[in-house]
């Protein structure tokens, strides 16, 4: 059950951070989303993989 609590907590943290960005910088977030719409799939895939690896490494370093 602890794993489920941690996953839900992590999702909640992601949503809180993303929500804070939209609340604090709505114009910048809109421009960023417009730019993402024009990016090629390969660039989005690379960015997603980079974010995935970075997130896994951060969790691994913190959780050890």
Short description:
The two termini are 20 Å apart. With 64 residues, the chain is mainly α.
Structure commentary:
The protein is mostly helical. It has one domain. The protein has three helices and no strands. The chain is flat, with a radius of gyration of 15 Å. The relative contact order is 0.06.
Q: What structural keywords apply?
A:
mainly alpha, 0% strand
Write the layout of secondary structure elements.
Elements: H1 2-24, H2 26-38, H3 41-63
State the separation between the terminal residues, measured CA to CA: 20 Å
The main sheet comes to: none
What is the overall silhouette? flat
Low-confidence stretches: none
Number of strands: 0
Tally of structural domains: 1
Secondary-structure element series: HHH
Content of β-strand:
under 5%
Structural class: mainly alpha
Q: Could you estimate the helical fraction of the residues in percent?
A: over 70%
Instruction: Please give the oligomerization state of what you see.
Output: single chain
Give the overall average pLDDT: 94
What gyration radius follows from the Cα positions, in whole Å?
Answer: 15 Å
* Helical run tally: 3
């Amino acid at each position: 059950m602890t794993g489920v609590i941690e996953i839900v907590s992590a999702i909640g943290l992601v949503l809180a951070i993303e929500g804070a960005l939209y609340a604090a910088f709505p114009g910048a977030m809109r421009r960023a989303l417009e730019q993402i719409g024009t990016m090629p799939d390969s660039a989005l895939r690379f960015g997603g993989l980079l974010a995935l690896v970075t997130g896994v490494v951060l969790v691994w370093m913190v959780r050890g």
